[in-house]
Amino acid sequence: MKNLRNYFASALITAAVLTSCNPLQLDEVQDPNNPSEASVSNNATPQQIQFLITGLESRHRGYVTNISQAWNTFGREIWYLNASDPRFQTDWLGQNGRVPDRAYFGFGTTGGGSWASPYQAIKQADVLITSAGNTNLIPETSKSAVRGFAKTIKGYQFMIPANFVYENGIRIDVANPLNPGPFVPYEQALDAIKGILDEGDADLVAAGTGNFPFALTRGFNGFNTYTGLRQVNRAITARLNAYRKDWQGVLTALSASFMDLNGDLNRGPSHPYGASPDIFNPLFYLPNAAVNTIIVVHPSVLRDTTAGDLRVKSKFLRRTTPVTVTTDAGALVGTHQDARWATNTTSIPFIRNEELILLKAEAHANLNQTTQAVEAINIIRNAAKIGPYTGATTQAALITEILYQRRYSLWAEPWGHRWIDTRRYGRQNEIPTNFDGGAIFKQFPHPQAELSWDLYKGN
Amino acid sequence: MFKLYKTILTLAFLWGSVGWAFAQYTVSGTVVDERTGEALIGSSILLKGTTTGTITDLDGRFSINLPTNDPATLIFSSIGFLTQSVDVAPGVSILNIRLRQDATNLEEVVVTGLATSVKRSNLANAVTSVSARDLTGTTTIQTTDGALYGKVPGATIRSNGGAPGGGISIQLRGISSLSGASQPLIIVDGVYISNASQRTGRATVSGAGASNQDDGSNRLADINPADIETIEILKGPSAAAIYGTRANAGVIIITTKRGQEGKTTVSLSQDVGFAQPLRLLGVDNWSEAKINFFFPESRRPIELERFRAAQSSGTFIDYEDYFYNNQATLLNTRINVSGGTEKTKFFVSGNITDEEGTVKNTGFNRYSIRANIDHKITDRIKIGVSSNYIRSNTDRGFTGNQNNSGASIGYSIAYVPNYYDLRKKDDGTYPVNPYFSENPVAVTDNGVNNTLVNRFIQAFTLDIDLLKTENSFLKAQFSGGLDYLQNTSMVYLPEFLQFQRAQANPGDVLKGKQESFNTNFQAALVYNWNLGSVNMNSSAGLVRLDFADNALFNRGRGLVPGQRNLQQAAIQEINQEFNSRIQDAGIFLQQEANWEDKIIGTLGIRWDKSTLNGDPQQYYAFPRASVAFNIANFDFWNVGFMNQLKPRIAYGETAGPVNFGATFTPLGGTNIGGLLGSVVSTQIGNTLILPETAKELEFGVDAGFFNNRLSLEATYYIKSTQNNIQNLNLAPSTGVNTTPSNEAELENRGIELSLSGTPIETANFRWFSRVMFWKNELLMTRLGIPTYIAGAFGTGLGTFLYAEGYSPTTIVGAPAVAGNPGGFTFWGNAQPKFNMSFFNSIRMMKGLELSFLVDWKKGGDNINLTSFLNDGGGTTKGWFDDDNGDGIPNGRQRPPAPFNNAGRWVQDASFVKIREIGLYYTLPKTTISEWFGSSVSNIRVGTSVNNAFLFTKYEGYDPETSTFGAQAIANNVDIAPYPTPRRMFFHLTVDF
């Protein structure tokens, strides 16, 4: 009997344990680390919209490091010397017969900072537009303002993949991640970008006047009004129109931009950087640091300078010890480093008055408006203290002069201007390869992941 | 043989008919070792078909009362000896039993269910058991997994490198997962322990990249190998099905030592040893001609000047020798106290491992305390607890990959010519390294890469005999435990280092706190009964697992000189915070049937659900079935030389867990310009994600020859996995890059052979020998998504192909070949052609024992980027030789032509290693009692070597290295690893 009692007791205890905390019961699963994307899809609060806007500013600078290092290497504005990984030299310079493939070093299968990153900014803009559209917690004018800002950034970002793959074309219809649209040719893509920028401009007009209703970082200081953002939008449109060879369109856009022929050439919106939790300016290197990973000025840029050019003085620092990096393709020596950034928290402008004035010159030159072209050129030359232009005023000569000035005015900006400019004018053969024995890439193929997706979908 | 049986049977019947009037009778006698004649203490004597039994006393004597006067069979067994059945009948009163040593482990008990076990001779699976003797009997190895090399057919074991404190990956029967590390589940005394390779932060500070390049230890390193009694390795789903969701990559069941009834024994062991690099490659010498070739014109004058200065002073430094070729001291102290009474048994152990690394300022300290206690509360209720506290303190230094920071010895010295002196100057400063971004001498002297783990593992078991009859029993078994692991890590580079001085905020410290708390609980009912002559063992139960992990990493840059406190930093950064909670629950049923040890079958099923799955409420079923035929136990068997023949077949299904977070589509946090932002993730969660599942069919045969002098185990398996998780790459133009998918399927087929035996066995000389052979072939049978390449460092240096009809271990790379799947050239395959191991143990002259283990891997390529770096820096030995006489040195013309492709760094990593050698002498008992009287019972001295010799054509420190640590794929990349040490020991063990 005693035994029987024991069995019952143990059975009861077991039953009690099992029912009080059922070991087969699992808790509900929630991400303990992040909010979900779904949390902003319906009736997002103004604060959530604000987070998405700041997120867009963050995505907006995603391309800076890769483009600054790679595209400026392609255009031989710089060398990105990197002793830890010789491929920054051998592969990016096209040494020993290397040519870009679909998973090229520095870009991977997604195209990295030159493809995936700008498209992430575009995605962020789309999510922002949708969230703002699906909430009743912000007024219509704010929705319009958000659309205007988002589309302006989208327009800017779309130009990056377009220029990366150039004639291979890009996808414009990317709203549905599981059903993206087709690749459209370069010209058609640029026209579509024009449409996006124009819509953004119209949205900013529709939003009214006054200050942008959400906080923007100090990168937009001076531009965080509806008017200011429209000026940025038009500046970006001017750059785009130059790529579209719509020279009258360049001038029209410039007139509504923040271009100021008498103003600070450096004025313009920028990508802010800072100490943690922000990130540091990725282009900053301590002067004369004993490192062997550094952006150095390409020898051809140093060779071709005009005596007394202030830009050379302010942008290039001659190092006390040159940086030498040896690879299986030989050695490269960098004598000068980038001196543009005072500190590692200095903002990096993404479009400046100086470029707008040069665009003005270029548009006039292409429209054979020689006088206005030379006037604009001289603004740049005088600022650089190299005296007014005295050369020939044929269209070809002016274009040569403008491209030369762009080399120094826009040197190593996070856009790869030289690479794009020489391609625009069929002058890529002017990019010198004799310093490194490499080759000049015209463009990149679509990243492998794009091809794979089409294969997966059976396209 | 059979005649004898018949005679005994006849006699038995005779006795039976004569002695029927007796109500019961007693059989007594002794049990001794057949070879040595020594008494076997604690041997068990069981009346067949019942639960009645007894054990032998200190003199090997026993006495058993038989309840009836019928003839009966007594089963004599003792651990490490072959079981003998002896028929008895009234009148047979004295039995002197001589048991044979179980050289082939037929008698060992193998866990086959969550609450049941079976003896090896009845096993239907190829379960490898590694005993304490196999594990640590030859030499002392730092970590348990490191002691498994060459002992487990079907296992591919790789080490990150030679840094002290572990960092080892085990893959059983190929790989079962593409996304995880495909590492087996590890259970210690019933506790599901963490074997995570936790982040250390080194790769962040050194710039190498993600935490998989940290060269962190896997946390099995915390378990003291000397505490282990046995390790059972369930290599695939056919054996591991009852473990369900987490068993795809196999299960390693570790059982620690427990107390035995009898006199309390105190055992004290001390190892003293030293380590040196197993292999160094040498560095190249320089000449003026080489300098003129290597350096650009502008650099030549200064280089020539440095070279001439070194020549005149005779100061050439072999940096490989300087950094790596140091003698490290290895000290291990162990104390075990064990004993107990019939009611309470205990095993208490303490261990101090204090081992230096061969690189200055590196080392591994482990303090471990264990108490394993078993207590019978009543005759029917038994409780067991196993408590283990561990403190592991590891300094692993700076080796491996880096970017820009120079915080890697091997990476830095690849670029430093031997005529330049980097050593500390008399004024206490370090010369600037003009060849790379850092002076590795300064980093080695002053950098810190430390991991301190405090860990507590607690297991409990509670066994209740609910019912016990003459030939059946029902018991309830509750077991479980917890594993609490706290990891404090620090990576520190002081502000005065060259690279730090070149930064805006010199000085860098990254501190991590990681905590994991795993609990598991299991309840089972086991009912053992007889159905006619079939013994049935039925079990049912439930399992619950909880895993909680959190990590917080903080970084400080711009440090006050000499300070490591984060508040002394100009830039204070929360580097990472990550939390995860995982819950699994399961139910299992298992039925085993044993017909007179002739046919043994098992059926089982487990249902599991997990919060990791897309549907956390969905149960997934994992069935198993197996059967073994002990043909030699059938009456018709009359092949005299073959005493065991057991064909066996087993089938089972398991799963591999989904990665935490696979179902989420998060908004990430970001900060820019002082504002907080939310960014859309580049991953879309898959709320329909399924666990990875695997099916395995295994069949084989076990055979014993010449009375088990020789035994053969042969197994063939086909393991196919479904729903393998891999990222489906979305078109990146949609702003999202990946979503987890369940499309892929893999197949592993392989064979495992093990031949062991005692070719010579006399009273004074016993030679045990074992040869193992295994081979696995992996194939991607279905990819389901477009062919892709991933892993390592891209196509330029060799990467891996994920394509249907290929093994994902296939190495491809530049140049592009449009016609090939994946678009690149095929250069190699990481998968070995086969592995073999050869173990010998010779005991002679009463107490002398020599053993050694040889390990052979044939085939399997590595991506050797150490060669790539050394070639880049002109320091590879023979770099400036010019074999083809074309004026371009070999170092610039690594084949194949045209010397710009990825194939240059893909190298055959075949090798032969003399893994372990041990020579021990046990002092004769008579000598001990002469010297110490009765206070000392046993003294054993010995010497051993671990990683004694390496024979390979591979151009690296160790063909078994992985810069990415434990990974399913790309675990064969060699980047400036910590050289593997050769470890030599002297051992002394004294038992009191």
Summarize the structure.
The complex is a heterodimer of chains A (459) and B (992). With 459 residues, chain A is mainly alpha-helical. Chain A has 16 helices and 8 strands.
Textual characterization of the structure:
- The complex is a heterodimer of chains A (459) and B (992).
- Chain A is mostly helical.
- Chain A has 16 helices and 8 strands.
- Chain A has helices at 2-20, 46-60, 64-74, 87-90, 116-133, 140-165, 186-207, 226-243, 247-255, 299-303, 310-315, 353-366, 370-383, 395-409, 417-424, 448-457, and strands at residues 78-82, 170-171, 183-184, 270-271, 293-297, 316-327, 330-338, 348-349.
- In chain A, helix 8 runs antiparallel to helix 9.
- Chain A starts with a helix and ends with a helix.
- The relative contact order of chain A is 0.14.
- The mean pLDDT of chain A is 94.
- Chain B is mainly beta and 992 residues long.
- In chain B, a hairpin with a 6-residue loop joins strand 5 (72-77) and strand 6.
- The two termini of chain B are 44 Å apart.
- At the A-B interface, helix 1, helix 2, helix 5, strand 2 and strand 6 of A face helix 10, strand 25, strand 26, strand 30 and strand 31 of B.
